[in-house]
Amino acid sequence: MPTFTNEIKARRSVRKYQKRPVPKELISEVLEAAGWAPSAHNAQPWRFIVLVDPQVKRRLAEAMAKSWTADMARDRVSFEPETVRLRVERFATAPTLVLACLSMEGMAKFPDVERQRCERDLAMQSLAAALQNLLLAAHSLGLGACWFSAPAFCKETVRGVLGIPDEVEPEALIAIGYPAEEPPAPPKKPFDDYCFEDRWGGRLS
């Protein structure tokens, strides 16, 4: 009998998609699932922007690629033009892109830098929980999806292309489409390598 754990293990990061569009109702369903994630103070600090217009997707992809190449040039790292082209096409041709953003609206405000930094950590944890919900919901609907963190490295570029206000921070892009590949399971660490407490409640070593 299938279990939810098996469904989690079956999910893959899919980067190649069929050309057919994803129905709006399915995108709405995965975003609604994202919205049911737990969040600090129940602030739900996520904001999602759905991109399906080919011109907008390409404009965003090209702007992010330009920022990436500028970063590589500053670091004196060489790269092939084909690498840039592939990065652009990855986003420009995905049937649907969901830009995941962070908003501190509703989060606690502290007078000191350290506690405010911790509060932002809580918001980021909440957004991550929402994105995991999104990915699992997409998988359950027969869709492929992949989480890319590229926008976090060029927030102002993304804001400029999409007209996003300063108080909303672009953090990640989720590409979604019908899978055109079946990636193998990636290697995962054994349970005992990442759980350092006796699973029955023993003391940490």
From the structure above, extract its key features:
four-stranded antiparallel beta sheet; 14% strand; NADH Oxidase; 7 helices; 205 residues; alpha+beta; globular
Would you give an account of this structure?
- The chain has 205 residues and is an alpha+beta fold.
- It has helices at residues 4-10, 24-35, 54-74, 81-92, 113-140, 155-162, 191-194; strands spanning 46-51, 96-103, 144-148, 168-177.
- The protein has one domain (28-178): NADH Oxidase (3-Layer(aba) Sandwich), CATH 3.40.109.
- Helices cover 45% and strands 14% of the residues.
- The two termini are 37 Å apart.
Task: Describe the protein's topology.
Blueprint: H1 4-10, H2 24-35, E1 46-51, H3 54-74, H4 81-92, E2 96-103, H5 113-140, E3 144-148, H6 155-162, E4 168-177, H7 191-194
Antiparallel strand pairs: 1-2, 2-4, 3-4
Number of domains: 1
Radius of gyration: 19 Å
Mean pLDDT: 93
Number of helices: 7
In terms of structural class, how would the helical and strand content be classed?
Answer: alpha+beta
What is the CATH topology? NADH Oxidase
Strand percentage: 5-15%
Side by side, the strands of the main sheet go 1-2-4-3
Distance between the termini: 37 Å
Q: State the low-pLDDT regions, or none.
A: none
Would you kindly provide a brief summary of this structure?
The chain is α+β, with helices and mostly antiparallel strands and 205 residues long. The mean pLDDT is 93. It has a 4-stranded antiparallel β-sheet with strand order 1-2-4-3, sandwiched between helices.
